[in-house]
Amino acid sequence: MGSKAPAAANTHGVYFHSPLCGTCKVAKRMIKVMEETFPHFEIREVNINEEIALAHSLKVTSIPCLIIFQEEREAERLYAFRSLEHLYTKLKPYTVVERLHKSFRLDQTKGD
């Protein structure tokens, strides 16, 4: 989880975890798959033990936690990652690919 080109409309995720959390390790593997699936969707990794003030200011109540920001505002918050399919369904609307598809569909309806 590192530096990548920003997603459309300044959209990114912040993943809160702890190195001692077993569920977080499973979630991190799922996030890595999503990063490969959506390479322009940046997910920043935050160790909650090192960033307690940030977690507190964002009202993170448990880990793992993925907060999706759009235009610097929280758009969605995930505590239950469930499955790759679930995570894919949650992240897809915030990706560049989905935005391009929506834009293309709008352009097609205008031409009719």
Automatic annotation (TrEMBL):
Q: Which InterPro entries match?
A: Thioredoxin-like_sf, Thioredoxin_domain
Q: Tell me the ranges covered by the Thioredoxin domain, including all copies.
A: 14-91
Alphabetized Pfam families for the sequence: Thioredoxin
Q: Which CDD domains match?
A: TRX_family (cd02947)
Identify the SUPFAM superfamilies for this entry.
Thioredoxin-like
The name of this protein is Thioredoxin
Q: Species name for this entry? A: Halalkalibacterium halodurans
